[in-house]
Amino acid sequence: MTHLIAPSLLSADFTRLGEDIEMVNRSEADWFHVDVMDGVFVPNISFGMPVIKAIGKIAKKPLDVHLMIVQPERYFDTFRDLGTYCLSIHAEAVTHLHRAVHQIRELGMKAGVVLNPHTPVSVLEEIITEIDLVLLMSVNPGFGGQKFIEGTYGKIGKLKKLISSSGSSALIEVDGGVDLNNAGKLIAAGADVLVAGNTVFSSADPAGTISKLKNTVPV
Ligand SMILES: O=C(CO)[C@H](O)[C@H](O)COP(=O)(O)O
């Protein structure tokens, strides 16, 4: 499978969000990455339901929603109703991860599990065959534009081994500090989905940057 690109709307220009969404619609991007922060699980607040509803009205590509919130179970129904394709929750934010991922799947969404940089891949051993995606944070979550954590390459390798030895078909997504310099190495390490915020939206040619990310070859 060729890798997928998911521009993170956290780095979009909110004064012209509609134009940025249309740019992504027309681009070679595959998904919209939507970061939801509550100011408790992470030290920042992003946007909530009315904004996501507006995004969903004009987004022509699947919504890949990353919940950085405590007790995410409270909102699974709401995110399904907002048209979420893949709903990802942090392993660190829920006590009953198995129950939570099954609730997400029963609502008809793909279920993703997110690991913070300090959380080992081994926490997924008993659940890897029951999830659709693992999102590895390559920065500490909460803010766009942070520096990529180099240890992520090794973590992708460990996750890839766990996925192939278990027969899981989970995708590996990487989020945080992804740019044109590290994209090829991330794909070579085994990343299936690259999230990019700052790299895309701070670029002089965002659609061109998405195209470059999409056409990056493994190195
Ligand atoms: O989840 C996130 C922050 O918690 C963002 O998706 C991530 O940081 C992407 O932004 P950038 O590519 O600018 O690092």
Explain the layout of strands and helices.
Layout: E1 4-7, H1 17-26, E2 32-37, H2 49-58, E3 63-68, H3 76-81, E4 84-90, H4 97-106, E5 110-115, E6 133-137, H5 152-166, E7 171-175, H6 183-189, E8 193-196, H7 198-201, H8 206-214
Parallel strand pairs: 1-8, 2-3, 3-4, 4-5, 5-6, 6-7, 7-8
The structure holds ribulose-5-phosphate (5RP).
Describe it for me?
The chain has 219 residues and is an alpha/beta fold. It has a single domain, classed as Aldolase class I (TIM Barrel, Alpha-Beta Barrel). Helices cover 32% and strands 20% of the residues. The chain is built from 8 helices and 8 strands. It has helices at 17-26, 49-58, 76-81, 97-106, 152-166, 183-189, 198-201, 206-214, and strands at residues 4-7, 32-37, 63-68, 84-90, 110-115, 133-137, 171-175, 193-196. Strands 1-8-7-6-5-4-3-2 form an 8-stranded parallel beta sheet. Helix 5 (152-166) links the parallel strand 6 (133-137) and strand 7 (171-175). The relative contact order is 0.17. The structure holds ribulose-5-phosphate. Residues 8, 10-11, 33, 35, 66, 139, 141-146, 175-178, 195-199 line the site of ribulose-5-phosphate (5RP).
* Rg over alpha carbons: 16 Å
Q: What structural class do you assign from the helix and strand content?
A: alpha/beta
CATH architecture: Alpha-Beta Barrel
CATH topology: TIM Barrel
The portion of residues assigned to helices is: 25-40%
Whole-Å distance between the termini? 16 Å
Average residue pLDDT: 98
CATH superfamily: Aldolase class I
Strand content: 15-25%
> Reading side by side through the largest sheet, how are the strands ordered?
1-8-7-6-5-4-3-2
Total strands: 8
Number of helices: 8
Low-confidence stretches: none
Q: Which hetero compounds are present in the coordinates?
A: ribulose-5-phosphate
- Structural shape: globular
The CATH class, by name, is Alpha Beta
Organism: Lentimicrobium saccharophilum
Keywords: Carbohydrate metabolism, Cobalt, Isomerase, Manganese, Metal-binding, Zinc
Pathway: Carbohydrate degradation
EC number: 5.1.3.1
